[in-house]
Amino acid sequence: MSQKGELIFLGSGTSQGVPVIGCTCSVCDSADPRDNRTRSSVHIHFPELSLQIDTGPDFRLQMLREKLNHIDAVLFTHEHQDHIAGLDDVRPIIFRLDKEMALYGQERVLNRIKKAFHYAFEPQPYPGAPRFTTTTITPNTPFTINGIEVIPIGVNHGKLPILGYRIGDVAYLTDVNDISNEAEHQLVGLKYLILDALHRKPHHSHFNLDQAIMWAKRINASHTYFIHMSHYMGKHEDVERQLPESMHLSYDGLRIPVNI
User: Fold this and answer.
1) pLDDT for the residue numbered 61
2) Are 132 and 116 spatial neighbours (Cβ–Cβ below 8 Å)?
3) Label partner for 241 (CA 20 to 30 A): which of 102, 130, 145, 170?
């Protein structure tokens, strides 16, 4: 049975966010709200399921900004701080539902989370600590949450093996600089591709804009939105005019329909 849902770009920026503290470049000083890029994550909700992909340092303010108040599970792409640091802020949801929050990620990532948020995993956690369940997932092995299939896609972030995710007709690939043949096969037939594009210069662990455009053409989704952008990318309005048809810069608060 098909379902219609929505994906919300909670954040579209790189690890420092935009504006960068102390920077006075034209992007950091821009009055265009699309140039205000908090740390990258997305929220996907269907009638019976709300999924969060990554919980960065700006997670609490992002949820408040978008007036979101429910999450059934959190999927992690990898363990870097700009993707996990806000996890504690799911506590109000846990307390309101009186239910443990489900976390999904690779074993290495979940172990890092257990270390960073050790107080939530102790045998007798202090009152007020969040409560979690953890499920280890592996690349390219689909799983279901509330009947909805999630495909974890193995990609590389420099030398670090991380995960992207495909859910229905949308795929989310952040912090990536290499896509294998196996991963590319999982991306056939997309309506929406959300793809890392850090900035214009080469980088050792992220696609730059030219590489992202090349891969977007190769994957050939109906629409591609670039994410995890630094202030070196340039102003949203300027870059948007230069992109091929069907490709766009994402921005905080952008919403797109998804279907499964």
Assistant:
1) 98
2) no
3) 170
Asked if residues 101 and 71 have their Cβ atoms less than 8 Å apart, the reply is yes
Residue 135: closest CA among 54, 51, 55, 73? 73
C-alpha span between 172 and 194 (Å, rounded)? 5
Instruction: Report which of 36, 34, 38 is spatially closest to residue 15, judged by C-alpha positions.
Output: 38
Please state the length of the chain. Answer: 260
State both tokens at 145. 């949450």
**DSSP structure string for 123-176:** SSPPTT---EEEEE--TT--EEETTEEEEEEEEEETTEEEEEEEETTEEEE-S-
pLDDT over threshold 80, residue 121 = yes
The β-bridge partners of 154 are 163
Q: What is the pLDDT of residues 149-159, one digit of tens each?
A: 999 999 999 99
Q: Distance between CA 141 and CA 155 in Å, rounded?
A: 13
What pLDDT is recorded for position 177? 97
Query: What domains, with CATH codes, occur in the chain?
Result: 4-259 (3.60.15.10)
